[in-house]
Structure formats: C-alpha cells, structure tokens
Amino acid sequence: MPKTAVSALAALALLFVAGGASSAGGGAGGAASSAFAVKVVLPGQAAVTVAEVSAPPNGAFSTPSFQYPADGSAVTSGAISAGTTATSGSAPSASAAANISSLSLFDGDIVAQKVSASADASAGEATAQGDMGGSFDGLTVLGAPVTAPSSNQRLALADWGYVLLLEQGSNPAPRYSGFVTALDVHLTRDHGGLPAGSEILVGRAEASAQVATPPPPPKPRVHGTPVKSPDELPLIPPTYRTIPKITPPLGQGGYIFPIWGPSGFSDTFGAKRTLTWHHGDDIFAPYGAPVLAVANGVVFSVGWNKVGGWRLWLQDAKGNEYYYAHLSAYAPAAVNGAEVKAGTVLGFVGNTGDARGTPFHLHFEIHPKGLLSLGYDGAVDPTTYLQSWKHLTDVTAFVGSSFEPGAVLLESTDISSGNGLEPTSLARAFAPLSKAGEVALLAGTRLPVAPGSAPPPPTAVAAGGRD
User: 41 near 49, Cβ under 8 Å?
Assistant: First the structure.
C-alpha cells in the first residue's frame, strides 16, 4: 500500500476515536466520516483545503469555483461540494462524499468533466462493513483518455511526477474504516509553478463504524491490589507472622451469617498450620448448603486456588474484605465485578482444594480495611462476628431473589423420595442421614476430582440440584 494510504488510515483511526467509538472501558459503538474536494500541499507550507467537512456533527459545504494559485495555473475547478453524516448507537453508520466539476490541473495536463468520491461504513451486532468508490467523466491525462480507471492505478506524468487514480484502503471488522481519493498527484520535479514534493489531492472521502464493545473484565484484586491472575493468591509474606488480636468494628450493619440453614463452627482462628496459621474459621454444614454474601458488596477473584479450591472474595461498601473457600459450586451471582446484596447466594458448601477428604465446610475469613496493608496476614478472628450475625434458615429468604428457593434442595444427597403432593416428603428429604465432623451433616457425595488436579469449572449444579 502506498505511504499516503498508510498515513491516511492512521489519520482515519484518530478521527474515529474522536467520534466517540472507543475507550479504555469498552465502547458504546460509534461512527465518523470526513471529506474534502481539493487539497494542495506544498513542502514546508500549510495545506490549502477546500470544502472540508467531518461528522459528527453532520456537515456539508459547497462553492461555485476554485482556483490555485490566484491565476489557476495549478488547479481550476467549477462547482465543488462535500458532505458527511455519522450516526452512533447500536447500529452505527457513516458516509462521506465529494464532487468536483470541470477540473483542470496544470493548464490541461489533467482534465475531467466530473470527479466524485464516496465512502460508506456500517456496523451491526456481529460485524462491520463498508464500501469505497470513485468515478470520472471525461478523464484525460497528458492528452490520453482514461476510460476504465482501476483502484490504486498509477500513471506516470512525463518526467515531473505521477498520479494515483482511485487511491483507497480499508481496515476490516470489528471496526471498519476506509478512505478513497479520486486523484492524488505527486510532483517529483518542479512543475507548473509548484516545487518538487508538492501534492494535489482531489475528491477525498473517509468513513468508519464500530459496534459496541463490552468493557474489559475487572482486574482481579487481592486486598485492593491488582494481581495478574484471579486463580492464585499471593504467597504469605515471610515478614508477617504476628496474629492480630483485635476485633475492630466493620462500620456497617445488616450482616448475614455466611451459610443458609443449619451449621456449626468453633473458634480455630490462629491455630497452627504448615508454615503459617489458620486465618479464619471453618463453618461445617451439609454438602451443597447455600453460601451467602455477608454484606452488600462487590464479588472479585472468583476461581480456582490449589489451597482454597473453588473460592471467591467479597468487598463490602466500607472496604472490608471476606474470603470464602472450599466451595463445591458457584451460584449465578459469583461473577467478578458483580454487585450483590447481603444474603445473595454466592455458592455452595464443599471440600475442594486442600480440604479434600475432610468434612464439608466453608473456610471463612474477615480482612478489615484497616489491616489490608498487612497483606494476607491482615485477618481477624471471625468468631465474635459470626456469633452476632443473623442466620437465615427459612426458605422464604430466597423468594424475590435471583436464585430460586429450590436451590436449598442441594443440601440433600437423594431427593428422589420427595413428592410434591405429600406435605411431609420435603421434611424427609432434609432429614439427617449420618453424622460427620463437628456438627450433624447430611451424607453427601463429593464431586469427583482427579488427584493433584483442579476440577472442571463449577456451575450451580450439585447432587439433586438444578442446572
């Protein structure tokens, strides 16, 4: 592609951004266009442009004649005009056109009765496309008629330059942009009163369009700090080994206990672990018991961790952060960047990660905002908080939420005996079948996981549950 074509596409890309088509946070879709009738560029001097318009906003310009210089020795033209339109939104589109009549360059070296150029671009949900075109009536170059000009055709102008006919280029989807210049004359030697290096462009049109683009997913954060991968927590800093012995206020009310239904726990915060200490409490509950958001907040770092298994973090409105680990599956609300309310179902109790083979439980941590600078060791004993938070045990807690009440059936290993016509059948399905761990648990079947590997991505499906 000629150098001028490359530079033109670069300029068009800048025009497109100016039209509001894209941004760092995703774009709402957009379109832009521009056109001019004649441009004369001399080395070291400002360009002289006639009938130059761009959109948005839509524009049009016309004039009955043009000469350059004053005696018309380089350019003489009759009526010239240019117009542009651009429409953004869900189906952005743009168009541009330039028209020139009775053109003569260098006292008849290049003559045309009419020159036109047009550019169109549009974008839909799946793709973007466009069309560039130009035409001549009675085009003659150095006395020779040009009856069928082709795109980017180059003709020599004796020993003083060359001309490009229907010069054009385009950039394909997802953002279509393209341009066409009907005539592009380059002087390699002085000619007709203009110095070598001069350029005359006649009939230029540009257009671009792009569909809306979604914003990038939120950068995973660990304690307010962006990390490269949402699937690995940072290593515990070796310089932090002091266990916080404080219970600071979290700054807001309305907290919800993190598990729906029956559960049990004891204070194991600070207990010795390999190379570290226990940063939270283990809350034992039936396999598949719904795990709830303890406060209004934003979900982040949803994914697999070799220690925590299927895990996630929640940051409340005050900046405090909560860690949930060893889930068996996620609920639909467990999405990075999702804003949730206290009591929203985030996932289901399990024993994934390094808890494999242990009784089903939720590992739960509290990281107050004031201790986030300590990294992962900025955790406090959650026991006192858990003892004071409201327990949800009634199935009506799910009514009106985005999660159906039927999700609680995940707590039963086998609900095949349940019959909606028998009032007591649901109670039988929830009846404890065995004891395990520190509290009464319903017998459950763990999701199969190959030793030493992460399980497949979870869904809101567990034994007896919905899909």
Answer: no
User: Residue 233: which of 222, 241, 243 has the closest Cα?
Assistant: 222
Comparing C-alpha atoms, which of 347, 247, 365, 368 is closest to residue 307?
365
Quote the DSSP letter at residue 259. B
Whose tokens are 């020993």? That residue is 159
Phi-psi region for residue 202, left (φ > 0), alpha (ψ -120 to 50) or beta?
A: beta
- Count CA atoms within 13 Å of residue 296 on its CB side: 6
pTM above 0.85, yes or no: no
Residue 125: both structure tokens together? 């949900």
Question: For residue 387, with 0-12 CB atoms within 10 Å meaning exposed, 13-18 middle and 19 or more buried, which class applies?
Answer: exposed
**Dist CA 45 CA 68 (whole Å):** 14
Residue owning tokens 């651009």: 86
Buried b (16+ CB within 10 A) or exposed e, 228-256: eebebbeeeeeeeeeebeeeeebeeeebb
What percentage of the chain exceeds 70 in pLDDT? 70
**Alpha carbon of residue 138 to chain centroid:** 51
Residue 71: how many CA atoms within 13 Å on its side-chain side? Answer: 6
* 268-296 tens-digit pLDDT: 898 887 667 889 999 999 999 999 999 99
- Express each pLDDT in 195-249 by its tens digit: 999 999 999 999 998 876 666 655 555 445 544 443 444 443 443 457 888 888 8
Spatial distance between the Cα atoms of 109 and 440, rounded to a whole number of angstroms? 98
3 state SS of 425? helix
Q: Which residues pair with 349 in a beta bridge?
A: 327
